[in-house]
From TrEMBL:
Keywords: Cell shape, Cell wall biogenesis/degradation, Isomerase, Peptidoglycan synthesis. Belongs to the aspartate/glutamate racemases family. Pathway: Cell wall biogenesis; peptidoglycan biosynthesis. It comes from Candidatus Rikenella faecigallinarum. GO terms for biological process: cell wall organization; peptidoglycan biosynthetic process; regulation of cell shape. The active site is at C76 (proton donor/acceptor), C187 (proton donor/acceptor). It is an enzyme of class 5 (isomerase). The lineage of its organism: Bacteria, Pseudomonadati, Bacteroidota, Bacteroidia, Bacteroidales. This is Glutamate racemase. Provides the (R)-glutamate required for cell wall biosynthesis. Coiled coil: none annotated. It catalyses: L-glutamate = D-glutamate.
Length: 265
């Protein structure tokens, strides 16, 4: 056991979406320190090119490494799709955890043979997405929709506004009409919209697949395998950094505290 074990877990997102991953990591590994970096100044990533996203995420990774992160969770489907191969090549000694749309569990669970996926335009149009679908969803109809506008709603604390619910309806109703019984949340911002999504689904048989708990377990496994879990027995703390203003960092911390309280309520 070295002092490196007490170094923080680094989490990165374009903005506030990674809070959905942060919350499960904190619940799974309460003794760990966490440092979260949000690229608030450049959010959203979903409409950008691969080169732009890779450049931005590289800045985030450098910031987290300067904060001594022992592992980096790319808590963003878009950033993972665009940049994780480059990051792994650039920092082969750093363990990276990425997020890919949970097509496999959805394809296994569906009874109707129809699965809905809600992601950013970048993610659902990517080669990685096409590849994952071909590999894991043979014989399953996958309805992939770009949830344009939703990331901005979350960033601006508008999760409960009628226009957010209208956007969600526009994206989810066609999936329900086509018989989808699984909804894969393929953008980390979208778990923050679960209360509104549940209102739309109502009593129709659609299961929401939020990958966050599985990502937290995977982070724990990777740290355990490498002998990198902290030995600390007291509660760890979380630090929130942003490429935006001090105010943005404070908003992140507040939103994170609010979100985790809704999970434990
Ligand atoms: N939270 C992100 C994702 O998982 C990125 C959203 C965005 O910046 O467009 O895809």
């Amino acid at each position: 056991m070295t002092s490196a074990n007490n170094a923080p877990i680094g989490i990165l997102d374009s903005g506030m979406g990674g809070i959905s991953i942060w919350a499960e990591i904190v619940r799974t590994l309460p003794q760990e320190e966490v440092v979260y970096w949000a690229d608030t100044a450049h959010c959203p990533y979903g409409g950008r090119t691969q080169a732009e996203i890779t450049k931005l995420v590289t800045v985030g990774v450098k910031t987290l490494l300067e904060a001594h992160a022992k592992i980096i969770v790319i808590a963003c489907n878009t950033a993972t799709t665009a940049a994780i191969a480059t990051l792994r090549a650039q920092w082969p000694e750093v363990p990276f955890i990425g997020l890919e749309p949970a097509i496999k569990p959805a394809a296994r669970a569906t009874r109707t043979g129809v699965v809905g996926v809600l992601g950013t335009a970048y993610t659902v149009q990517s080669e990685m997405f096409r590849h994952t679908t071909e590999q894991y969803a043979q014989g399953v109809r996958v309805i992939a929709t770009a949830g344009n506008g939703l990331v901005e709603q979350v960033e601006n604390d508008r999760e409960e506004q009628p226009e957010t619910e209208n956007l969600l309806k526009q994206y989810i109703e066609p999936m329900l009409a086509a018989g989808a019984d699984q909804l894969v949340l393929a953008c980390t911002h979208f778990p923050l919209l679960v209360p509104a999504i549940r209102r739309i689904i109502g009593n129709r048989p659609m299961q929401i697949i939020n990958p966050a708990p599985a990502i937290a377990r995977h982070t724990q496994e990777v740290l355990a395998e490498r002998g990198m879990l902290t030995a600390r027995e007291t509660q760890g703390s979380s630090r929130f950094l942003s490429s935006g203003t001090e105010h943005d960092s404070r908003r992140l911390a507040e939103k994170a505290a609010h979100y985790i309280a809704t999970l434990t309520a």
